[in-house]
Write a sequence for this structure.
DNA sequence: GCGGGACGTTCCATATAGAGGAAAGCATAT
DNA sequence: ATATGCTTTCCTCTATATGGAACGTCCCGC
């Protein structure tokens, strides 16, 4: 039985035996939510649900009727599908969600594993805003504080936030960040560099302030597949060396994927 | 015990989304969904949930933990909020939903109450596509069939679909529909008319084909607040007279509101 | 026409899942 | 320090949810 898009989303980060921790005394609810999970894969008939989930037809029927009566499911020609109530909840959840809160535990984990400072930030128009920081175990710390705003084109976090943009936008933002004082060759180089980042899905950035700060940044995607925030690790280039880089990039990307999953991203469609 | 249940009035054919119906044997699920409904209004603490919903703190706690473990809820500084799972479900529901199927029962109701033909249609670029029709009880029927496509600016349904557009767009589409053969005065008149429709949230349209067909159309909004389809009633101007119009418009608007609600719209924000 | 299979629905006796009281932790306010 | 309010755990008892059985309906093949 190809079970495929079941994703386990970490919630609090500090559960020793995460696994299948079950809140007891909620069989009915859990079964109903199992049904929702099956329906995610597309319309399905009640009898199939009963089989797949190992419950009696009666129970499947009862739960499905209950969910339908609340508009969590709707009836279609070929079985039950996700219902209109979820549209409402989805939109409201989009408004209520606090990306930083979701990302926090993952940031701590990443920081713990790598020892580096971890940041998340979001895009504000042509700017990149630092939202949260977890300081690593290293003596050397990157000073950027939550709240800081920098031109989106010239930070690692910012570049990650731009990966979905078209090249013309990269160019425009780069020129604006440099206040127009750029040569065509520099623009060329910048765009080429961004192209490389995009291909790898990961940004390696050396600070242009000459302070020797280097960072690896990766975008995080929301339920709609759009980049909503980005995560990065940063340190002195002295620590974040070229030979460490592949392994670290791998870890940052994995963290980003986990966070993306936790905010509802379900892969490119 | 042995309670005799003689409540068996509702045939399955016409379930109104009133919410009064109760599927028995699902207390736990229903309570959990009640919790979701409360959380919709914003973050809320477990104890408040218990009070509002008339359940023990223990029960509220258990359900809330269960919902959290499935990511239907998330914990915030000031209580429980909608969780990331809903982002995923919301997006998927958006893809799966069949507006016509949702609208159908409401169309039938409206047709039954008014006696007129009822239509729904959606916008396809600069065109309006008729999606579904429910023929009324009147001898005279409007011939427009599902599948028909007309310039969006020159049907009642189409105009309703345009109510959110800026005036420049109204003008452009009107001119295009008329193949450019319009005087500035006509454009002025058209835009003024649309302004009136927008103000009332309802379109009164007399066919420009000279066949004496008149319609009342109202837009339907999706969970994001955007106009996704529109509903209309149509008949000969002879039947759809000026004195009937206010009452009919009222009924069409109410239907549109109900359908909007059924597809997740929750009012202007 | 008839019989068999699949699905949705209703009924009912029963076991068990879930409700809630009581009380222990944990904060933040007075 | 004491108090107030929230979360969390434990435990008992019954209201609740469960699944087998049976019925209605549709569709297919014979």
């Amino acid at each position: 039985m190809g079970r495929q898009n079941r994703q386990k989303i970490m919630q609090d980060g500090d559960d020793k035996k995460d696994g299948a921790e079950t809140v007891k005394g909620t069989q009915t609810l859990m079964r109903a939510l199992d049904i929702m999970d099956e329906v995610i894969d597309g319309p399905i008939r009640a009898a199939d649900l009963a089989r797949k989930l190992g419950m009696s037809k009666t129970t499947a029927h009862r739960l499905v009727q209950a969910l339908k009566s609340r508009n969590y499911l709707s009836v279609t020609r070929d079985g039950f599908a996700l219902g209109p109530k979820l549209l409402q909840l989805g939109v409201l959840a989009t408004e209520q969600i606090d990306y930083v809160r979701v990302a926090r535990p993952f940031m701590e984990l990443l920081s713990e594993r790598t020892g580096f400072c971890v940041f998340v930030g979001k895009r504000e128009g042509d700017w990149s805003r630092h939202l949260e920081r977890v300081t690593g175990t290293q003596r050397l710390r990157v000073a950027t504080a939550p709240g800081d705003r920098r031109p989106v084109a010239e930070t690692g976090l910012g570049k990650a936030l731009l990966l979905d943009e078209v090249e013309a936008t990269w160019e425009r933002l780069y020129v604006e960040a440099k206040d127009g004082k750029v040569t065509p060759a520099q623009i060329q180089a910048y765009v080429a560099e961004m192209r490389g980042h995009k291909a790898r899905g990961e940004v390696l950035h050396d600070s242009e302030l000459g302070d020797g700060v280097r960072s690896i940044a990766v975008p995080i995607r929301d339920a709609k597949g759009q980049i909503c925030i980005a995560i990065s690790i940063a340190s002195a280039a002295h620590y974040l060396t070229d030979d460490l880089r592949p392994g670290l990039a791998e870890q940052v990307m994995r963290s980003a994927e986990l966070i993306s999953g936790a905010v509802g991203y379900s892969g490119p469609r």
Remarks:
- Chain B touches chain A through 57 residues (CB under 8 Å).
- Residues 2, 12, 27-28, 55-59, 62 of chain B lie near DNA strand C (CB under 10 Å from a C1').
